[in-house]
Design a protein that fits this description.
The protein is mainly alpha-helical. The protein has a single domain, classed as Orthogonal Bundle (Arc Repressor Mutant, subunit A), CATH 1.10.10.10. It contains 3 helices and 2 strands, in the order αααββ. The longest helix has 13 residues.
Length: 70
C-alpha cells in the first residue's frame, strides 16, 4: 500500500502537539476516516516512527525523533 508522506507528516505533527490525541480526533482534524488513520498509525509504528506508551485508554503516543544515524 502506498502511503502519502504528506498524511504521515500531518499525523506526526498533530501527535507531537498533543500526545494523548485519539484516532477519531486525528481523523476529524485531518478530514479522513478513522480506518485511514489506523492504517497510517500502524505503518508509522512498523517504521519505528511512532510508539504507543501505555494502554489504549490512558496511554499516550510518542514520536520517535530522527537521530540522523543513517
Amino acid at each position: 500500500m502506498k502511503m502519502s508522506v504528506k498524511m504521515s507528516v500531518k499525523i506526526l505533527s498533530l501527535i507531537k502537539g498533543n500526545s494523548v490525541v485519539t484516532i477519531p480526533e486525528l481523523a476529524d482534524k485531518i478530514g479522513v476516516t478513522t480506518r485511514t488513520i489506523e492504517r497510517y498509525v500502524q505503518k508509522l509504528q512498523q517504521d519505528n516512527l511512532l510508539i504507543r506508551i501505555g494502554p489504549d485508554k490512558g496511554g499516550h503516543w510518542e514520536v520517535v525523533e530522527n537521530k540522523n544515524d543513517k
